Amino acid sequence: GFSDVALEEVPLISSRLPFLSGRATGSLEYNLGQLEFNLTSPDLRVRGDDLALATRVQGSFSNGLLRADLRLERAGHQGVLGENGVLGSNRTTAKVELENGILSGEVTAASFPLHWLFSTWAGDLAGQAYWTGQTTFRINTRNPWASRGIWVGEYLRFQGGGDTLVGTAALRFEQERLYVDQLALSGKGTWNGSGYYGRQGSNLRLNLENTSFTPVLQVVPNLKPLAPEGSGTLRLASNGQIFDLTLENFSFKLGPVRAETPRAVLRVGETASAEGRLKLTAPYPAEAQLSGEGDLANFTVRARGTAKLPLLSPDEPFALRFNYPAYTVDAN
Q1: pLDDT for the residue 84
Q2: Sign of the four-CA dihedral 277, 280, 285, 291
Q3: Contact 268, 242 (CB under 8 A)
Q4: Distance (Å, rounded) from C-alpha 9 to C-alpha 90?
Q5: Could you count the other beta carbons within 10 Å of the beta carbon of residue 13?
Q6: How many H helices and E strands in the chain?
Q7: 38-50: buried (b, 16+ CB within 10 Å) or exposed (e) per residue?
Q8: Exposed (0-12), middle (13-18) or buried (19+): which is 111, by Cβ within 10 Å?
Q9: Higher confidence at residue 82 or residue 318?
Q10: Which residues contact 122 (CB under 8 A, 6 or more apart)?
Q11: The pLDDT value given to residue 310
Q12: How many other CB atoms are there within 10 angstroms of residue 81's CB atom?
């Protein structure tokens, strides 16, 4: 067994979860071909975050089958405030199995801090996300498209950039499609959506009205270096034959780039069209008119305008071109 071990000093853990810290006690026992393990920690933390989770993991490994039970709850708290201020459990439990490249399991979450989980490998995030609900999953690690799962958020809360979104969501993945069975968030504006998106077609609607995207964007680990912000209205409709995207009073920030548009529309079907005016405010002022051509299989969006660039004339002409499905951007 082991006692009071600093997890950040264990190479197997620190190499995979470099921002996780805390001390743990546990045991490893091997008998007749079966390995059993048990680990407890009173206060797992992420560097830069004061939130601590009391954690217990126990399980076994035998004949290529790994089983584990996990329990996490906020250290020193007897409950958490949920929707309408109702006091409830703060315990999250999970059961997982891994065999022949198939990871399966179920989780029941009570105000679980998703941002804390993501921060264990990405570092402290600017946003926060709390999840109460359940998930069941069967992930094929060799062929992810063959996976399936259901994720239900009975109560969700996103915070970031001074804005908050709360509500519910239900997502499902099966037969190579991601289904949005329910999406209903409100606070700084509203988010509503339904339908599905997949490799073999889509039928999806999203209506994000007069809202802030920042609380959700700032929880995405891959976007952390860009310190993302966004606000406005986004409406998307896609049914496999027509793709329609409308932005209104839309502004965003990604890294050093800041841009805004009062209205921009992209419609792609048998033909493609784009209209609207995009204004860049950083790192250099610029304005451009949008246009488009092509069809659903292959389309191009163009932006032509002028920019104020160092060492060049005050209104230097420029052109940008984005192509799908190549996902290439050309600039002149």
Answers
A1: 45
A2: negative
A3: yes
A4: 29
A5: 17
A6: 3, 24
A7: ebebebbbbeebe
A8: buried
A9: 318
A10: 19, 221, 222, 224
A11: 86
A12: 11
| CA-closest candidate to residue 301, choices 261, 274, 262, 267 | 274
Structure tokens at 325: 């499905």
Residues with Cβ < 8 Å from 200, sequence gap 6 or more?
Answer: 176, 177
Structure tokens, 121: 């490998």
The stretch 79-93 carries a mean pLDDT of 59
Number of residues written out for the chain: 332
What DSSP character marks residue 221? G
At position 225, the amino acid (one-letter code) is: P
**How far apart are the C-alpha atoms of 93 and 110, rounded to whole Å?**
9
Q: What is the helix, strand, coil percentage profile of the chain, to 5? A: 10, 65, 25
pLDDT, tens digit (0-9, with 9 covering 90-100), for 163-222? 999 999 999 999 999 999 999 999 999 999 999 999 888 999 999 999 999 999 999 999
Tokens of 169: 């969501």
- The H or E element containing residue 184 is strand 177-187
For residue 129, the one-letter residue type is A
Measuring CA to CA, which residue among 183, 169, 112, 103 is closest to residue 136?
103
Using CA atoms, how far apart are residues 79 and 9, in angstroms rounded to an integer?
A: 32
Q: What percent of the chain has pLDDT over 70?
A: 96
In 3D space, the residue among 171, 101, 181, 112 whose CA is nearest the CA of residue 136 turns out to be 171
Q: Which residue has the tokens 């954690």?
A: 55
State the burial class of residue 64 (Cβ atoms within 10 Å of its Cβ: 0-12, 13-18, 19+).
Answer: exposed
Which residue in 220, 266, 274, 207 sits closest to 242, CA to CA? 266
Could you give the CA distance from residue 85 to residue 79 in angstroms, rounded to a whole number? 11
